[in-house]
Design goal:
This protein has about 290 residues and is α/β, with parallel strands linked by helices. It is about 40% helix and about 20% strand. It folds into 2 domains: about 150 residues, 3-Layer(aba) Sandwich (D-Maltodextrin-Binding Protein, domain 2), CATH 3.40.190; about 100 residues, D-Maltodextrin-Binding Protein, domain 2 (3-Layer(aba) Sandwich). The strands form 2 sheets. It has a 6-stranded mixed sheet with strand order 2-1-3-10-4-11. Strands 7-6-8-5-9 form a 5-stranded mixed sheet. Helix 1 runs antiparallel to helix 2 and helix 3 packs across helix 10. This is Phosphate ABC transporter substrate-binding protein.
Length: about 290
């Protein structure tokens, strides 16, 4: 109705007709264009590796959900924390501790998690290292991705503290940097998680040995910004969950070592909240 009235008005002034047509065409395109949503991925690995694994998956999920998903990450984990803190991403894949922090402010809500996975921190040492226990790392250089990396840093450091083992902790920005640093002899040991270790190139992972494992917790959250509508969130949820239901979707999950994604609720991270962690996040939290 409103369009016919606009054209009727414009017809009285022919010079306005072209302007009106262009304006209405622009409105129509805007109404039909799918929403564009940024997806922030915690940089556990090099950005090129994350892009290779995530971009094809996000493109397919976007197609199924009738949205456009744009891959985003950051130079390192503290920089990622800064961006999540500012609410820069509409969706964010974050570790369990991150979720307990950012569900408060700016209010991200978990709506998916990895299927059949518990998050376990690991400490790796060079394959030929004589070290056979955490106690033997007393005073040694141990690499971690970042202070607030949950399973790869917070949990292993808690194990050292409980055993009263003093280490020389070094923060090297990503899981990949930990594994490469330990393999190359720059560090005596390093923290990580099984999934990222399995995703490392064999020439690095074959040089490492898992020394210890931490207790298991709910895995990373795929969380959504409160500004995303419930209708779009539900379309996305169903598209992500549906990936493991067909061969094409399973092929896209394989580079991430995911069996699939399942619906998640906020309370599933209460066991992490119960740890009462107070680790600062962001660039300012990194020890220089």
């Amino acid at each position: 109705m409103w369009r016919s009235r606009v054209f009727a008005f414009c017809w009285r002034f022919p010079w306005l007709l072209l302007v009106c047509s262009l304006l209405l065409a622009g409105v129509a395109r805007a109404q039909s264009a799918p929403p564009v949503l940024s997806v922030g991925i915690v940089p556990q690995q090099a950005a090129s590796e994350l892009a290779r694994a995530w971009i094809p998956l996000l493109q397919e999920v976007g197609r199924r959900a009738r949205v456009q998903l744009v891959f985003r990450t950051a130079a390192d984990i503290p920089a990622f924390e800064d961006r999540v803190m500012k609410g820069e991403f509409q969706l964010a894949y974050m570790n369990p501790y991150h979720y307990t922090v950012f569900s408060k402010t700016p209010g991200y809500q978990a709506f998916l998690k990895e299927k059949d996975r518990k998050l376990v921190g690991i400490i790796v040492v060079p394959k030929g290292s004589p070290v056979q226990s955490l106690e033997q790392l007393q005073g040694k250089r141990v690499a971690f991705p970042a202070p607030a990396a949950f399973a790869a840093s917070i949990l292993p450091r808690a194990e050292f503290s409980r055993s009263q083992i003093e280490i020389d902790a070094r923060y090297v920005s990503s899981h990949d940097s930990v594994y490469k640093g330990v393999a190359n002899g720059l560090f005596d040991a390093g923290g990580g998680i099984q999934r990222t270790l399995e995703g490392m190139e064999p020439q690095v992972s074959s040089q490492l040995r898992v020394l210890s494992r931490t207790p298991a917790y709910t895995p990373h959250a795929l969380a959504i910004h409160p500004g995303v509508s419930a209708e779009v969130a539900e379309r996305l949820r169903q598209a992500f969950i549906g990936l493991d239901g067909d061969e094409a979707g399973r092929a896209l999950l394989e580079p991430l070592n995911f069996k699939g994604l399942v619906a998640a609720t906020d309370s599933e991270w209460d066991s992490v909240r119960a740890l009462r962690l107070r680790q600062p996040v962001g660039s300012s939290a990194v020890k220089k």
